[in-house]
Amino acid sequence: VMASMAHLQKEKLLEELLGLQEKLAARENDELSLSLQLQGQVETLKAKVLEQAQEISRLRSELGGTDAEKHRDLLAAENERLRQEMKVCEGELRELRRQQQAPCRDCPHLQENAGLQEQLSQLQREAEETRAKLVELDLEVQQKTNRLAEVELRLKDSLAERAEEEERLSRRLRDSQETIASLKSQPQQIKYIIKTVEVESAKAKQALCETQSRNQYLQEQVGMQRQVLKEMEQQLQSSQKTEAQLRAQIMLYEAELERAHGQMLEEMQAMEEEKNRAIEEAFSRAQVEMKAVHENLAGVRTNLLTLQPALRTLTHDYNSLKRQVRDFPLLLQETLRSARAEISQAIEEVHSTNRELLRKYRRELQLRKKCHNELVRLKGNIRVFGRVRPITKEDGEGPEATNAVTFDTDDDAVLHLLHKGKQVSFELDKVFPPQASQEEVFQEVQALVTSCIDGYNVCIFAYGQTGAGKTYTMEGTAANPGINQRALQLLFSEVRSKAADWDYAITVSAAEIYNESLRDLLGKEPQEKLEIKLCPDGSGQLYVPGLTEFRVQSVEDINKVFEFGHVKRVTECTNLNEHSSRSHALLIITVRGLDRSTGLRTTGKLNLVDLAGSERVGRSGAEGSRLREAQHINKSLSALGDVIYALRSRQGHVPFRNSKLTYLLQDSLSGDSKTLMMVQVSPAEKNTSETLCSLKFAERVRSVELGPVSRKAELASWPSQEQLEGDSPGSAATPGRGHTSHSSGQLSTRAASIRRKLQTSG
């Protein structure tokens, strides 16, 4: 308990000493700030004169003028300065006279002196308060010393009690030792008695046992007393050690208190001396400055009389300048208003010019596209459209599913691909963003579809990697059909609009190239392999013997044909596409027309091709039959690339027969057809390599020139509707081969004029 009390008193004394040191430090800071404040007030007196001089120089620089005017301004500024100094000196004189029994009331130096004296008295009061606080601290230290003496008395009392306890224990120890000695002297006699009464009665034996047990008990008591004695000795030694430690700590605390008290007195004396020295220095500096002001007062009085005319002139100029400054905000507002109006007018003119330039640019862009399309038509180039599918859930999440394709806002024929940190730009004939609808895509290709009615061969094929959306673009869905169904609907619409003058028959065939085998999707035996052959009429056209043709006359017929062919087409699931097309699908639409008024026959063919997607076997995970299908698909697409390269480089031999796909598309790629390639790409980051290859192939295809396209039209006799239908059967038949029926002898005048018109129209 005494140790804990001593520890608590030590901590409390340390906290009080720290508090006293903090108070002394705060008092030193206050006195230092007060002395700095006095020095600042003295410096303020010096700054006033400098400010007046700077103000006069500023006014002089603003007014400007001739040398005489500048001299006049200089004199006026000097006059003003001297006048101010004179006022200050007069105030100081009045203060001095008031001090010499002639009171002066408004002298600033008097007020400053009074302030200094008041501050001095305040500092003295604060010093008295500090002394009082020091006295209080001394009293507190004395009280703590008294409490420490009381603690020492208590400690001495406890030590006395401990000594008495030790004395009592010593007496008990001596009694125990005496008892042990007496017990030690008894055993020999007992042994002797034991030996002598060894054959006595049972009572003697019982007494002997009791004596032995008592002897054992006494020996145990002696051992216990010895143990207690050792413990008491150890406690006595520990108490003596504790007493010595407490006495050493008390002496240390007393020395620390004396040292802290001495330091406190020394710091208070140093603070008092520093305060007195600061007050004396401030007072001496004020006296020196007062003397300097008195010395300048005489010169100020002499210059004051000469500067009065210049002062009046300066006052007049100052008033005029003040009026100008007062009117300046109005002039500034008018100037700003006019400037804003001019800037607004200029901005409006720039905007109008920009709108006009943008309008002209868009008009020129449309004209350029129109001229480019006409040039493509004349040269027979393959038109290339690009379509970017949207990001889907099959692309996954994370960095690999980010969009890597961007579009040009000013040109809808340019797209940009970010591949390995570099941006690659591609220019096609038209680019459709992911938000483009099926209707928008078909609006761009419907002109080609309608030219089929006029007797031209047209081929539209979709190219791209697997899962890029080729089948969706060509076939679509039931609710949102693609190019195939929309093309037939458009053909029916055109046929109905020309029904007054023309008779048309539309037949449809569907085939697929699966593992380099051509199969009929509308036939009764779709596994039967077909062959591609030249027409025996010498026209050089290709046809497929045994390919089923269905005549369609309504949308319901179209849906039946599509449903029948779609069921038989081969599709499988891969890692890249859940419904991957494993074959090249071809929809062949033949339109035969007859002009009843002229007897003109036209035959147009529309080939709609949905190519199987190129795929990397490592990514698609194709195995077994899927692997064999992927190999045949890649081989046929590679053959298509070889054909495009040969056509682009104008080689003499074009390898159409290297693949069933290229051989079947020979009519469309050899210059006698209007051809459009719809390249489908994926915008996902993980597919940028395939997208780059597809777009590069599209640029190569776009540069191929096939030559002008010829129209398939011939003049014949005027057959009846039944003859036209007989030439275009609705059941399975081979494609028409252009039968021409010429009458013997000279044609009539009307037929000759029709021929001239056809030759003129080309």
From TrEMBL:
Q: What membrane topology term does the record carry?
A: Peripheral membrane protein
* InterPro entries from the UniProt entry: Kinesin-like_fam, Kinesin_motor_CS, Kinesin_motor_dom, Kinesin_motor_dom_sf, P-loop_NTPase
Q: What is this protein called?
A: Kinesin-like protein
- Compositionally biased residues, Basic residues: 753-762
Per UniProt, where does ATP bind? 464-471
Q: Which gene encodes it?
A: Kifc3
The residue ranges of the Kinesin motor domain are: 381-704
Q: Which organism is it from?
A: Furnarius figulus
Sorted alphabetically, the keyword list is: ATP-binding, Cell junction, Coiled coil, Cytoplasm, Cytoplasmic vesicle, Cytoskeleton, Membrane, Microtubule, Motor protein, Nucleotide-binding, Phosphoprotein
| GO cellular-component term (any) | cytoplasmic vesicle membrane
Q: Does the keyword Iron apply?
A: no
Q: Which residues form a coiled coil?
A: 10-186, 229-285
Where it sits in the cell: the answer is: Cell junction, Adherens junction; Cytoplasm, Cytoskeleton, Microtubule organizing center, Centrosome; Cytoplasmic vesicle membrane
UniProt similarity note: Belongs to the TRAFAC class myosin-kinesin ATPase superfamily. Kinesin family.
Q: Where is the segment annotated Disordered? A: 715-762
